[in-house]
């Protein structure tokens, strides 16, 4: 979603949702597809093979796209904002990549979702408006509610001997914390989660993507209007009453920023929590070490973020450039594969091993350069608290036999169904 | 041991603060800074850890 016009009250189409068919990939160097089921389940071996043979593969599926996999390339491109714009950051090309539909009669996100889908100068000042809400000092004040939330969730299943660690736990945490920051009702957590999944996880399905975007934007339009009348001490209210160079912030920019905070703050961290629990469920040694040596948490959390980085962001080539021998054309997408960069053996010793006390770890799970994730302090806190509280209550657990684990991927990779059992 | 954060390279990942809050702070806008003139010997290992975890290569040991 991006610069689309969104219809208010657009009637939903009847009938079943179209199922997106992925033609299985046979040549990952020239025809890759990040939505291929094999890639969703296990992208790691595919990256390893490509790094040896073609470290910046290309595809014409959906749109001409390149996908750097080496740490050096990903970080270099992230820093070259002249040739690689952030105006279109969706991994799955969506409305932002098409002409706006003139027939829509709703909010026009002409500025996209700043600051994530913007370049300087818009990026610079919109980012400065958001950053204080996610400073480490501010994030510290969200710890007690996050801890209490995790404990309440654990109360719901700790005695049952089994749970879906993704749906019953990981998925439930970030959405409620972000609702609190935005100042919107956590009672709508499931609705928010549904919209965000529609926009990101099911972006290949245009109808579903559009429905999620509409729901989310129309909700925020109402919320913003309410806060305009009755301001609170939340992020939305502050954005509405902020002046930049003597002028109020454009309504479309406020709407885009509100939508961004929800979209970026939900399934990203939920995926990181889920992947971390997946790792700990199948790695008794690491699990017991973390229980026995809780002082390892700071490096352990960074290592889990490195090994199971959820987020890939796109860039758009602004003018023709040959990068590392690749003839990139203006308008091409570049999928910034931060997760693959974090598994690059040139940047990390034994990258496929999880080492909870890894000392050299310049991972880029939160990106690199001026678009470093604005919510990274919050995400790190939520992951830390979620793992700590889980291990405090359920120190011994393992993957349930025979149950199928499902992984979402594309823009954000993480488990969506994760059945675990415990004594 | 003395440390320096290059303000032009720092992007506010706050990895230094997360690993060594005794040595670094990060302001509301993500700018990291060194809060000790001299790193005490018992914190030198933590300082090296912070250097080796900065994704922007923004921290250097100056002496």
Can you offer a commentary on this structure?
The complex is a heterodimer of chains A (423) and B (63). With 423 residues, chain A is an alpha+beta fold. Chain A has a single domain (37-96, 117-421), classed as Orthogonal Bundle (Cytochrome p450). Chain A is built from 16 helices and 14 strands. In chain A, strands 1-2-10-7-3 form a five-stranded mixed β-sheet, covered by helices on one side. A three-stranded antiparallel β-sheet of chain A has the order 4-14-11. In chain A, strands 5-6 form a two-stranded antiparallel ribbon. In chain A, a hairpin with a 5-residue loop joins strand 1 and strand 2. The radius of gyration of chain A is 21 Å and the shape is globular. The longest helix of chain B is centred in the C-terminal third of the chain and has 8 residues, at 44-51. Chain B starts with a strand and ends with a strand. Chain B has a single domain, classed as Alpha-Beta Plaits (2-Layer Sandwich), CATH 3.30.70. Chain A binds chain B through residues 75, 128, 131-132, 135-138, 298-299, 302, 359-364, 366, 368-370, 372, 376-377, 380, and chain B through 11-15, 17-19, 26-30, 48-49, 52-57.
Instruction: Provide mean pLDDT of chain A, rounded.
Output: 91
Total number of β-strand segments of chain A? 14
| Span of the ends, CA to CA of chain A | 44 Å
Largest sheet of chain B: 2 strands, antiparallel
SS content category of chain A: alpha+beta
Q: Main sheet of chain A: which strands, in order across?
A: 1-2-10-7-3
Quaternary state, please? heterodimer
Report strand order across the widest sheet of chain B. 1-4
Compressed to H and E, one letter per element, the order of chain A equals HHEEHEHHHEHHHHHEEHHHEEEEHHEEEE
Pair with the biggest interface: A-B, 25 and 21 residues
Text of the CATH class of chain A: Mainly Alpha
Mean pLDDT of chain B: 97
CA-based shape of chain B: globular
């Amino acid at each position: 979603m991006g610069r689309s016009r969104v219809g208010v009250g657009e009637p939903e189409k009847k009938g079943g949702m179209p199922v997106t068919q992925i033609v299985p990939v046979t040549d990952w160097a020239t025809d890759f597809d990040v939505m291929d089921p094999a890639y969703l389940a296990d992208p790691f071996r595919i990256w390893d093979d490509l790094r040896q043979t073609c470290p910046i593969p290309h595809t014409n599926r959906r749109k001409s796209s390149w996908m750097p996999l080496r740490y050096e390339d990903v970080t270099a491109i992230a820093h070259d904002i002249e040739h690689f714009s952030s105006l279109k950051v969706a991994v799955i090309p969506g409305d932002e990549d098409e002409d706006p539909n003139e027939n829509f009669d709703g909010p026009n996100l002409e500025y996209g979702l700043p600051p994530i889908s913007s370049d300087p100068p818009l990026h610079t000042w919109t980012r400065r408006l958001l950053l204080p809400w996610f400073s480490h000092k501010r994030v510290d004040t969200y710890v007690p509610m996050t801890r209490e939330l995790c404990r309440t969730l654990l109360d719901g299943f700790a005695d049952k001997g089994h749970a879906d660690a993704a749906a019953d736990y990981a998925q439930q945490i970030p959405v409620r914390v972000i609702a609190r920051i935005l100042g919107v009702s956590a009672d709508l957590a499931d609705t928010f989660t549904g919209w965000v999944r529609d926009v990101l996880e099911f972006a290949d399905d245009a109808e579903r993507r559009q429905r999620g975007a509409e729901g989310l934007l129309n909700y925020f339009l109402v919320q913003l209007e309410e806060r305009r009348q009755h301001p609170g001490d939340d992020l939305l209210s502050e954005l509405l009453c902020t002046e930049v160079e003597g002028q109020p912030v454009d309504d479309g920019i406020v709407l885009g920023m509100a939508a961004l905070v929800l979209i970026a703050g939900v399934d990203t961290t939920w995926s990181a929590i889920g992947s971390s629990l997946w790792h700990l469920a199948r790695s008794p040694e690491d699990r017991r070490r973390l229980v026995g040596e809780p002082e390892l948490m700071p490096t352990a959390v960074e290592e889990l973020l490195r090994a199971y980085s959820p987020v890939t962001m796109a860039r758009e080539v602004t003018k023709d450039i040959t990068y590392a021998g690749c003839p990139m054309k203006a308008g091409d997408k570049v999928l910034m594969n931060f997760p693959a960069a974090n598994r690059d053996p040139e940047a990390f010793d034994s990258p496929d091993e999880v080492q909870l006390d890894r000392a050299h770890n310049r991972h880029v799970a939160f990106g690199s350069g001026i678009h470093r994730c604005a919510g990274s302090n919050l995400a790190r806190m939520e992951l830390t608290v979620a793992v700590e509280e889980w291990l405090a209550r359920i120190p011994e657990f393992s993957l349930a036999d025979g149950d199928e684990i499902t992984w979402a991927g594309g823009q954000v990779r993480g488990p969506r169904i994760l059945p675990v059992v415990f004594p | 041991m003395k440390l320096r954060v290059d303000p032009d390279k720092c992007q506010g990942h706050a990895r230094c603060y997360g690993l060594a809050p005794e040595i670094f702070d990060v302001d509301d806008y993500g700018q990291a800074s060194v809060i000790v003139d001299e790193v005490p010997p018992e914190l030198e290992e933590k300082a090296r850890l912070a250097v080796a975890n900065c994704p922007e290569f923004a921290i250097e040991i100056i002496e």
